[in-house]
Amino acid sequence: MNVVVVESPAKAKTINKYLGSQYTVLASFGHVRDLPPKDGSVKPDEDFEMAWEVDSQSAKRVKAIADAVKESDKLILATDPDREGEAISWHLLEALTKRRVLKNVTVERVAFNAITKPAIQEAMRHPRAVDMELVNAYLARRALDYLVGFTLSPVLWRKLPGSRSAGRVQSVALRLICDRELDIEKFKAEEYWTVDADITTCGSSFRAKLVTLDGKKLQKLSIKDRASANAAVEAINSASLSISGIEAKPTRRNPPPPFTTSTLQQEAARKLGFSATRTMQTAQKLYEGVNIGGETVGLITYMRTDGVSMVPEAISQARDVIGDQHGSLYVPASPRMYSSKAKNAQEAHEAIRPTSFSRLPENMDLDGDMARLYKLIWRRAVASQMESARFERTTIDVTSDDGKTGLRATGSVLMFDGFLTLYQEGRDDEEDEGEARLPKVEQGAAADAAKTYSDQHFTQPPPRFTEASLVKRMEELGIGRPSTYASTLQVLRDRDYVRMDKNRFHPEDKGRVVIAFLENFFSRYVEYDFTADLEGQLDKVSAGDLDWKQLLRDFWTHFKAAVEEIGELRITNVLDALNEALAPHIFPEKEDGSDPRLCPSCNEGTLSLRLGKFGAFLGCSNHPDCKFTRQMSPQDADSVIEGDGQIAIDPESGKPITLKDGRFGLYLEMELEGEDKPKRASIPKGWDAHALTEDQAIKLMSLPRLVGEHPDDGQPITAAIGRYGPYVHHEKTYANLANVEEVFEVGLNRAVSVIADKRANPGRRGTAATALKELGEHDGKPVRIMSGRYGPYVKYEKINATLPKGTEPESVTLEQAMELVEAKAAKGGKKKPAAKKKTAAKKKAPAKKKAPAKKSTKKADSES
Question: I need a labelling partner for 204 at 20 to 30 A (CA). Which of 213, 450, 773, 783 fits?
């Protein structure tokens, strides 16, 4: 018997079918060991000894694998074909070696790029040993991330209260976002004008742009105001024009290469609106496979790669499909070969491509995200082997007789669409090629400006990063690895360092303070070149050209010295540096030219950053005499929306109800007679704050609403909207209502019924979960998709397995649902039965005197 270990249970079942009964295929469920999230897991003083830990769930899986290995002759490690997969194989070897079960057992490592029968059988014919150079690179990376996280984070906690932790790659990604925001804040728009003319000649007309004025070539900002634009128009109208030059030349556009991890994330964001995490989760499902003819088959090759090549067999398949689908004109004379231009690219693996090009997207029975992503991958891979698109680009120059005034028209005509018939890459600077076709004109022919146009423009600040553009920039700089981009960006969101608005990254004040601190006191470790160079050194380790321990020694020597140097720094020094670094953000220049740091309350003190329990804020230097404070960002201070923001008058008090914008979003506010604080009301989820009617605003400000008196005890029942949504309240009972509208309409009988139902079911919050989809039965037990408070989930017996984020309930199959259930059960999804209480008859042991509790230490999040 041979034991094969893979990472996921879904793959284990499929591969076991391919290999047959003489193999037992087990799943490790990813890593079986990890560094404990506490100080001391990496020990620099002991030559970077690392203390690995096996958690309780992993211990069960290691035991199951060990028990199977005891009865076998061979152990085959078939974890994923990337660096992380190599590390998982090494961890398994180490764990099994400690259990002493590998004696007289042959150990082999195999790696396959696709979950198909031919790919797996081919891999089994070419076993190898675990690649220790890749493992060493993994160990170095884990140690670096751990040391940065667990050394730098405590410094942040001491110097910047309210901050969270700092990571090696995460901090540099955050700096990119913050630097872009600073560029936007510093940006000053400049006015400029463009001048065009409708040129008529030889019975035809076309639009041309002014490019030369007074004998000088115009730049983008050359015409700065209306007066200059009018002068340029007059120069065109008074000139004697003729056609001075005609150039028509053919151009070609070649197809882009097939996807890498990075380019897949970028295109899925542009074309499908997917986040990097959503893209990788969907790609994982396509890789692990779907049921085709009763057999689970992987649809794409491995999705964590920075290679752009395809094997000859795949290229041949793609060319055959192109010929069948589009004709021989679309098949180039020879196959296209690609090489990566990304920094630190490791091209050991193929690009992401379909495992079989004959599986056309329109013939595949896929649902939702999987269908859309498979189509994108298939089209990109096929297009990469198609003929180039051909254009004819034409330029016509129109010049005055004295040569001082010149206009130019450019256009291109699509002569052959080539790969564009199937796929066009999403780009921020996409050209509208093929739309501007110029007429046939004669050299030297007289021309006339029939009509002139002058248009005002203003320069625009650089755009904020989207996930696609940020991933692209990180790849260009050689920061991080493509396989970790999704998790790195998610960490920034989870720590509230950034927020997403209209699919673009906006840095939060908390993130900006952290980056300003790091740039001022740990500048080397957030420099783009330094981080990219570190990635290059890690690649040298994986190539066997650098000792991983030496890399760590060199890094730690300088990093430890920098941390010790900052340890004695006073908070006042930190605040002074942050005030200066963040000045364009927190002290923007005022239109009247007055001091932006002058306290608006006392008009004497100076505003400065202060650090509190919940983060940074601005306070007056005359504190405590002046108690003025505000949030860091001027726009975060509560501000009225659109003029005075008044949208209604309260009929009872006659006071105005105002819509305001605070740090937590839009809300309503009304001043109360004799009260120090105004009354406020949040905007319910699903309501458009900017479309609120007068009636809606009055209703919200009237809450809580008295429904009536309970018939049993005469106590009041009220209806309101709280943290968990709409509810009714009686004494100590809070019972959820179905929707916001019911708060304003619920009657006494309905309220009494809802409260009685809640008291009869005290453990249940809100209404009972409802079934969204019946999937069928498994072992005679029903499997359902249920609606839950935190989203849809799979219910099977007593196991509730949450659907992955972004998954549509209607697209889930019974097989997929049971995989989620099995994964949840393996992680301890079933609740342990409550321990039995000891009988009162037993005599209580005398209480031991408790030892003083040790002070807890904060844990830093090391970056994966």
Answer: 213
